[in-house]
Amino acid sequence: MNAEFLRGLFGLDGKVALVTGASGGVGGALAHGLAPYVDGGFLAGSPW
Question: Average pLDDT for consecutive 10-residue bins of the chain (48 residues)?
Answer without folding.
Answer: 85 82 83 82 67
